[in-house]
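Morning F.,

Quick status update on the modeling queue. The single chain you submitted on Monday has been processed. Sequence for confirmation:
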Amino acid sequence: MSKIAVLLRRIFGVVREHVGTDHLGNKYYSIPEQKSWTGRHIRAKRMVEAANPAAHEYTEGSIPIEWEAWIRGRRKEPPSIEELMMNESQRNQIKLKAMEVEEKDLALQAKEYEEGLVATPARTVAKGHASATVFGKEEFSEEPTSTANKFQPGSWMPTSKK
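Structure tokens below.
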């Protein structure tokens, strides 16, 4: 690095080098290791300038996996466009194969149900939650019931629990 560049960096502060841009429009920068104008050591950093800088607009997948690995320091060199395109096509092929396998599995499952090789899953609805102590058990209420006009106060007596 030339002495003029070092002097300019000390005077004007941190200089970032544009490393690349992804297909989503995010720009990636590298800030090389340097010393500040006070002589303090500043370690190298990597950063991204998002295409949609608003935090509420961020969604999972806004930064490609390869670029995220570069930012976090898990890889030394930034990804090339060819590498990004190759990995994207491989991901798409895997998705297609997974859909095919799922369709075959559903067809095989339906065939086995029709032939009677596999029992069809029971479609029961249970009240309550499985962690409750009374789950699946019928509850009988000992509360008084009335037939409207025929109820006589004091005619109901609670049953003794044994």
